[in-house]
Write a structure and sequence with these properties.
Number of helices: 5
Order of helices and strands: EHEHEHEHEEH
Low-confidence stretches: none
Number of strands: 6
Distance between the termini: 35 Å
Largest sheet: 6 strands, parallel
Helix content: 25-40%
Strand content: 15-25%
Bound molecules: flavin mononucleotide
Length: 185
């Protein structure tokens, strides 16, 4: 059973909406247990529990929010070096396209890498013009079908990698099931 944690901070609900979609996507993969946690309620035990985690934050000045940073700085500080090897990815909601959501994803990925997690991007598309190479992004609330699907795609890919890496389920490797993939062209 793969265990996926979707950890998020959201001041006004937009990243929370993304988090629910990411969790929905992860739940599509069989034998996957998904836990959704707002960062204020999360504990280090949630991080120990999971095999894979998606971390979401609003874009704040182009980077992760201070509340999300505080979780890793303070709550997780004494656990550094003890949680390596989990599969991880990022998502972010910004005020508008071009407002730095992908940079915010990269800042989240930087924190995840610092903790020794195996950070990945996604090559698939969630529609004709949308992908999540560096994580799922949304301008404000995810409303467009392609943006909503990008969030689900990120969660599904996370659960697939967890199935492969943590549970040795090679049948869940994305390259082993081309029918489930959506590549451009
Ligand atoms: C302190 C602060 C800084 C922000 N910085 C940015 C920014 O750099 N770029 C941007 O596009 N939006 C920025 N925003 C807007 C939020 O990213 C945006 O409203 C987002 O959808 C909020 O997500 P949430 O509802 O999950 O809190 C900022 C908002 C706040 C409160």
């Amino acid at each position: 059973m793969g265990q996926v944690l979707v950890l998020y901070h959201s001041a006004s609900g937009n990243t929370a909406a993304m988090a629910r979609l990411v969790a929905d996507g992860a739940g599509v993969i069989s034998d996957t247990e998904v836990r959704l946690r707002e960062v204020g309620e999360a504990t280090p035990d949630d991080i120990y529990w999971c095999d894979g985690l998606a971390v979401g934050s609003p874009t704040n000045m182009g980077i992760l929010s201070w509340k999300m940073k505080r979780f890793w700085d303070e709550a997780m500080f004494n656990h550094w070096g003890k949680v390596d090897g989990k599969v991880a990815c990022a998502f972010s909601s910004s005020g508008g396209w071009g407002g730095g959501a992908e940079i915010a994803c990269q800042s989240l990925q930087m924190v995840l890498m610092n903790f020794g997690f195996l950070v990945f991007g996604v090559t698939d598309y969630s529609g004709k013009m949308t992908t999540c190479h560096y994580g799922a992004i949304s301008a404000r609330e995810p409303r467009d079908a392609e943006v909503m699907e990008a969030c689900r795609l990120l969660g599904r890919r996370l659960a697939e990698w967890v199935a492969v890496v943590a549970d040795g389920r090679q049948d869940q490797h994305p390259l082993a099931k081309p029918e489930s993939r959506t590549l451009p062209g």
